[in-house]
Amino acid sequence: MEQRKGFKKMIRHALEGKIDMIICKSISRFARNVLDALNIVRKLKEKGVQVVFERENIKTGNMQSEFILTMLAATAQEESRSISENVTWSYEKRFQQGEPVFTRMLGYKKDKDNNWIVIDEEAKIVREAFEQCLQGRNPAQIAKSFIRKGYQKVNDRTDWSALAVRDILKNERYTGDVLCRKYYVQNHLGKRIANDGSKTQYLIYDHHEAIIEKEIYEKVQEKLMEKTKKKPSGKRKRYSFSGRSICGYCGGKLQRFICRGIVTWRCGTHTKSKNLCAMTGIREEMIVKAMIRGFMERYQSRDYQKKQDLATKLIEELQGVNSATDSAYNQIRLELERILYKENLVVLNPEVQDKDGQLKALNEKRTKIEEQMAAKEAWWILLEEDSEYRQRAIETLENLRAVKVSLKELKEHLNNNDFLRAWVVRVKALSPISFSLNWFDGEETLVEFNEGVEGR
């Protein structure tokens, strides 16, 4: 459910009273398990929102429909499980017959007869990776040397990482053998996980032409084992600035590091190689200071100085984000539908002069609007993801409204990163002391500090 951002947005709109009825093709498209389907339908029903399932001819308006929905949802879940098992079975049969699944990787391509063919130029890069590893270099060092030499990956990019090199060094397919089912899906509702022996694996020997000799491959595995440190597995922690701090040099995302107790954010591209990006590390305290200064400058320039108005107006701003986004979306959508309507009129009207010319002009307008919508949708997704920050900030401001704080008094709360994130959607680091802030309403603020003076 976490990955269904559009679905979650639709449900939120329905619970806010913006949608009266939801029409869905079938129960299986609404939710893949009974519990999710029933919980969502009940929440919607409490708000007077009806869900119509076309294939099953169900309208969630009475208890009888809910009973039928329970039965059919269980059937849909079972159907999903059956399909998943059939797919798994078909793969297993292929593996048993010595037919592995081909995925494009550096050094190989597949011809029309499904034979795996060696690509000589790419094979040279693979051999060099193994050679450098035997010479004592680790994957990170090999990646940096590949960046300096301008070697291209499968996707034609040159931003090699230690992980990309490690994947090559650990891939047994370069020896001509293929190990099938390295990963598997635990059940039809689960995610792909590494196969630790829970499921049968199939090793197909000498399936295709080798790029690396088996002896060399085994020696490299021993080298990698020597340097591998076992790290405790667990869910990756997310921070307030994760995914929202970007590098002003290359556009890469900033990654959080702690060195001697100091939290810094470094460009992911720069960590791969200085040749790819010149941005140095940025202290988190500087990012926070930039956001606080930007916030103070933004609201000092507005008529928000009166204590009785400040918290109220900030709350109104945050509450208006969703409606403003929806309004912008509806406006673009309306323009698109008008163009489509005009196109239909031209197509259906036999008396139209220069039909091809008119259709071409309308098509160009439609393409432009669709591109505009695609560009804005990325921004709208960010706003949707930040709704939790805004809700928490509104709760804080509700408490502050009772005591009537001023902008100066509010500054104490701005040291909370989560509180600031309700307003700041993205931070672009132009340098370690210069930042561009993108606000929820699309405005942009440039904040610069004096080198060696502030934030040190």
Q: Short summary of the structure?
A:
The chain is built from 15 helices and 16 strands. It is of the alpha+beta class and 456 residues long.
Write structural notes for this entry.
This protein is of the alpha+beta class. The protein folds into four domains: 5-90, Resolvase, N-terminal catalytic domain (Rossmann fold), CATH 3.40.50.1390; 108-227, Putative Large Serine Recombinase, Chain B, Domain 2 (Hect, E3 ligase catalytic domain fold, Alpha-Beta Complex); 237-305 and 406-456, no CATH class; 307-404, no CATH class. The protein has 15 helices and 16 strands. The protein has helices spanning 5-15, 27-30, 34-46, 63-96, 120-134, 139-149, 162-169, 214-227, 268-272, 284-300, 307-348, 355-385, 387-403, 407-410, 417-420, and strands spanning 21-24, 50-53, 58-59, 108-110, 116-118, 178-180, 183-185, 192-194, 202-204, 245-247, 254-259, 262-267, 282-283, 424-431, 434-439, 444-448. The chain has a four-stranded mixed beta sheet with strand order 10-14-15-16, with helices on one face. It has a three-stranded mixed beta sheet with strand order 1-2-3. Strands 11-12-13 form a three-stranded antiparallel beta sheet. Helix 6 packs across helix 7. The chain is globular, with a radius of gyration of 28 Å. It starts with a helix and ends in an 8-residue tail after the last strand. Keywords: Coiled coil, DNA recombination, DNA-binding.
